[in-house]
Amino acid sequence: MSLIDDAAALLDSAAFGREAIEQFPPGHFTLAQAYDIQRASIAHRLSRGEVLKGIKLGFTSRAKMVQMGIDSLIWGLLTDGMVEEDGGVVDLGRYIHPRVEPEVCFLTRKAIDGPLTSLEAADFIEAVAPAMEIIDSRYRNFRFSLEDVVADNCSSAGLVVGGWSRNFDALGNAGVRMQFDGRDVQVGSTRAILGQPMRSVVQASRLLHGAQMSLPAGSLIMAGAATAAEALRPGVHVECRIGTGTGSASLGNVAFVTSGAAA
């Protein structure tokens, strides 16, 4: 087996078996090879019957880019096996050391098969929703290099999407509150997502084009985190609210309850 196949099989086994692995040696593979590993790892999921559902963006915060010393986004793939029910129960036993972060999710109206401009982006989007992503690095102690995290599908493990809305006007600078058992654990603004979350659609189209991929109508685009992530623990009620909760500035809320124990 090649370096790509070996690394992909190792990461897939770690995710499927909920067992953390050691980080790869520095320089073990390039960033381009990391994306090849990511695709090969997701192929294992598809071979078990999962279906591609969309893509997720990472490092949509400028501060995070500076921190990591990069000047571009990273991205990963979503499958239907990652989707958790809004308001449902999330079994932490499915994960290794899960964390959650508030996001904005888009639903595509038309296939995205080429780079879009800012003026074109809204025409390709059917709706937007508040969402939360469960990230779960397959590496020990949640530590990794840029190449490591890309190979590991950018730590994407689960997602919860709330009610859909056509209220795109609320996206620019909506308040974001993520609560555990009714108490704020993260507070921020949708402006943290590239200054305007709709820009994530433009960036997604460019990344897809560069990878010679397209995104079918009805796909999800997770636009990136609006705040830092919080570690999950059993028995907590998690809720994310985006907007004021009333009137045109509201996108709505999304919630779930955790059960089980993380490994």
Structural class comes to alpha+beta
What's the story with the biggest beta sheet? 8 strands, mixed
Unreliable segments (pLDDT under 50, ≥5 consecutive)?
Answer: 245-250
Spatial gap, N to C terminus: 29 Å
CATH topology: Fumarylacetoacetate hydrolase, domain 2
Helix content: 10-25%
Mass-distribution shape: globular
Give the SSE order as H and E letters: HHEHEEEEHEHEEEHEEEE
Task: Provide the β-strand percentage band.
Answer: 25-35%
Level-1 CATH class name:
Alpha Beta
Which homologous superfamily in CATH is the superfamily? Fumarylacetoacetase-like, C-terminal domain
- Cα-based radius of gyration, to the nearest Å: 17 Å
Number of domains: 1
Named at the architecture level, the CATH assignment is: Alpha-Beta Complex
Oligomer: single chain
Count of alpha and pi helical runs:
6
Q: How many strands?
A: 13
Mean pLDDT comes to 91
Structure description:
The protein has 263 residues and is an alpha+beta fold. It has a single domain, classed as Fumarylacetoacetase-like, C-terminal domain (Fumarylacetoacetate hydrolase, domain 2). It contains 6 helices and 13 strands. The strands form 2 sheets. Strands 1, 2, 3, 5, 6, 7, 10 and 11 form an 8-stranded mixed β-sheet that branches. A hairpin with a 2-residue loop joins strand 8 (175-180) and strand 9. The chain is globular. The model is unreliable at 245-250 (pLDDT under 50).
Give a short synopsis of this structure.
This protein is of the alpha+beta class. Helix content is 23%, strand content 30%.
